[in-house]
Amino acid sequence: MFAQIDKIITAIDNAVWGLPLICLIMATGIFLTARLGLVQIRHLGKAFKFMFKDEEDGSGEVTSFGALCTALSATIGTGNITGVATAIALGGPGALFWMVIAAFFGMATKYAEGLLAIKYRTIDKEGHYLGGPFYYIENGMGSRWKWLAKLFALFGMLAGLLGIGTITQINGITSAANNFFDADSKHIAFTLFDTSYTWTTVIMGLLITICVALVVIGGLKRISQISQVVVPFMAVAYVLCCLIMMICNVTEIPHAVVEIVKSAFGMDAVVGGALGAMIVAMQKGVARGIFSNEAGLGSAPIAAAAARTKEPVRQGLVTMTGTFIDTIVICTMTGLSIVITGTWNTGLEGVEITTAAFQKGLPFPPVVASFALMICLVFFAFTTILGWDYYGERCLEYLFNKNMKAVRAYRWLYIICVFIGPYMTVAAVWNIADIFNALMAIPNLIALLALSKVIVKETKAFTEKLNVEEKNQRILKGMNVENV
Q1: What angle (nearest 5°) sits at the alpha carbon of residue 312, between those of residues 307 and 317?
Q2: Residue 419: how many CB atoms within 10 A of its CB?
Q3: Mean pLDDT of the chain
Q4: What is the pTM for the complete model shown?
Q5: Which 8-state DSSP code applies to residue 158?
Q6: Ramachandran region of residue 239, left (φ > 0), alpha (ψ -120 to 50) or beta?
Q7: Looking at beta carbons, which pairs linking 20-23 to residues 24 or more positions away fall under 8 Å?
């Protein structure tokens, strides 16, 4: 019976995450890129400037950097390590090329999401800033589309609670810890339904549950404060490990880049199989890129809406940097490390591929390399738990008209799911989470396309205003020079 249910869930997952949805997400990114005149290239410098420089008279609950870190805490997760490895193992090194292409167009999508999140956000009686796809669907497209907004909120809440935010992440943490500290499972704590669990799993599960509870009960500001410390730390630490690996294997980088490009277009496939190899590389790379940075899913604008700003375009640019950091930087680092060391073609799976790459490429003893990767995995998964709790709470608030009793109950239910996560089978849960993620994307993409004129109008107005300010500054600077 359970096997049949798993087959049904898998079939639904394959259907909703098939080529039609992937093409829709990519097409939306390409369309917005064209309408906005390559905003991800022209204004990337300003985006990073705005990330660290808050508006003096902006209004909101957290800084723009804090809102970005909250969003990154949910997007930068185990997928950046295991997901990239799986994509390359199934689609070849060329999957990394298409992952970056998906991220490039996804930056325009993320920009649009962040812009609309600020433009259509609302403030409740307690002074909380609320926004996201459900608000820009209802307030931007009109109240007659409120049913679509409710659907998004429902799918978002379930995605966080039933897998992607809780069970799969805590299971990843305890599995990583157990593989390092007790790989042979010699220290058994108890056996449940014919499955044995080690003391490492029990202890790590309790520690993470307590940490999550302490943060989650504190609400958005607590999540933002933790994210502003943990996210930059974990991202820098991981990128540093990858950079060390590349420096130690610098002579292999040109060959790896050539291999990635050739594989992306099927040039290294046997005669007649080039097109098929290219399609597989494209499908795996694009799917993983979308799943990793969540561009088009509609999750990031929920966090962006709380940013301390009054300018929608400004926050859109800051939100856009999340895709750049998540995929173009971190996923690329992971992919290059795997291709350079050649561990993708060794018969290993998932995190084992990345672990083997770290052990082979880093100038440290294998145990040190494995420990470094385990720590990164723990932090990645922990912050994903925090980020998705925030998303789930905001979805719940919209569904139940800001009923805080329901939100508090949701927090405790979320903590319970984290607690039981290490002892549950995650295969079906991952598929269920994938399904809800895909279902989230459809209402959001409809809204982005429907409100594209608003996005273009806001962008044009802000750009013209910025050009005038810069021109006035140059004139003023010239006058000061003449006076001197």
Answers
A1: 80
A2: 18
A3: 84
A4: 0.86
A5: H
A6: alpha
A7: 21/438, 21/441, 21/442, 22/283, 22/286, 22/287, 22/290
